[in-house]
Amino acid sequence: VEETYVMVKPDGVQRGLVGEIISRFEKKGFLLKGLKLFQCSKELAEEHYKDLKGKTFFPKLIDYITSGPVVCMAWEGVGVVASARKLIGATNPLQAEPGTIRGDLSVQMGRNVVHGSDSPENGKREIALWFKEGEICSWVPVQAPWLRE
Ligand code: GTP
Ligand code: MG
Fold first, then answer.
1. Residue of the CA atom closest to atom 4 of ligand 1
2. How far away, in angstroms, is 140 Cα from ligand 2 center?
3. Which protein residue's CA is at the shortest distance from atom 28 of ligand 1?
4. Atom of ligand 1 nearest to the CA of 117
5. What is the tally of helices (H) and strands (E) in the chain?
6. Strands (DSSP E) along 62-131, which ranges?
7. So which cofactors does this thing need (predicted)?
8. Nearest ligand by distance to the CA of 61
């Protein structure tokens, strides 16, 4: 099954947007498999964003992600990776469409409130990176037959 790692970044937590952000994925109909409030280390942040290591903004990005607690989420569903990226919107919040999380709730790339994995492979990699095995639950919601024929 396809899974994606979604994370409310420290600005989203500080601004009281956790419920709003979780709610968008919940209402869409994806399955929540993992959820926690977590203060991440510099090492974990660097591993998570390792593909961006050479970028000039990398040190600032690591400071941002480690500046306070984040909310870690694992979501499952057919097509969840691409769909979550659509719900989240463009990296630059000023270019993100209204109706998307970033488009509705943020104004700057360095404070864009939420993360979503960019491929199914990275979804699995990031869930394994941020969660321990016992923190992921597989379950069948009662609404399952009302979401898919
Ligand atoms: P994530 O979901 O957080 O991975 O964002 P993304 O996939 O939309 O963008 P990308 O992976 O390319 O960059 C990761 C994060 O680095 C972005 O969400 C921004 O917070 C930050 N970032 C990317 N590009 C820039 C930039 O040019 N300047 C600054 N200050 N931050 C950037
Ligand atoms: Mg990314």
1. 115
2. 29
3. 57
4. 2
5. 8, 4
6. 70-76, 114-116
7. Mg(2+)
8. 1
SS3 7: strand
Of 144, 141, 138, 17, which is closest to residue 71 (Cα–Cα)? Answer: 17
Q: Is 105 left (phi over 0), alpha (psi -120 to 50) or beta?
A: alpha
Residue 118 to residue 84: CA distance in whole angstroms: 9
Here the tokens at position 93 are 């919040």
Token match 């404070």: residue? 111
pLDDT in tens, 108-144: 999 999 999 999 999 999 999 999 999 999 999 999 9
Tokens, residue 66: 């480690």
9 has binding-site annotation: yes
112 is in an annotated binding site: yes
pTM of this prediction?
A: 0.97
